[in-house]
Prior knowledge:
It is built from eight helices and ten strands. The chain has 243 residues and is an alpha/beta fold. The chain is elongated, with a radius of gyration of 20 Å.
Amino acid sequence: MSRAEPRGHVGGAGCLYVVATPIGNLGDMSTRAIEVLRQVVLIAAEDTRHSAGLLAHFGIDTPMQALHEHNEREQAPRLVQRMVEEGLELALISDAGTPLVSDPGYRLVRLARAAGVSVVPVPGPSALIAALSASGLPTDRFVFEGFLPPKAAARRARLEKLLTEPRTLIFYESSHRILDSLRDMAAVLGASRHAVLARELTKQFETILDDSLEALAGRVETDADQRRGELVVLVEGWCPPAG
Length: 243
């Protein structure tokens, strides 16, 4: 089917594919993801300039439209209207990994479902699941907290609420705040609490460190490389004192 003849969805109300893309290693791109991104009429991308390289690598020439935190409230209703009125198939991607996980897309998916549009996940890479699978921490129950607040007081207040959380805690953190966050985690959750720092997963300089929160903070302070790239912090859940 040519691009001049947009593909409609059999159900008549359109279809939104939520497509996971690699978090670093392009070899993690699934065959299904490539096929879906080629067949849809439009790709809603968090950053079209960033995603252009990914699409070019896999020979995908589907048009893109930016959908990010600053325009989603305005653009989501328009995209849903197109899917409903024209029965079109669209795809949603983020800069890396699974959309909506600390990324835009929630409003689009919610509006699409409310309008009767089929929402189809195309699963794949996720930094938090990749980090958890290699962490050695309990995986049967966990809590994903996304990014902690950037300001120290708010960050510590959030951590205080998690002090007695028994499930494994998972956080994303930026490179310029990782040291402060680890120090606050050690101060609030306990310096000896076991934790894992996963950095640049699936990329050339991937590292996965595990130690106490205090020791990890010390390592990050003395090793500038550990303050670079994409970071996931995992912390063991709270265990009540024996006796």
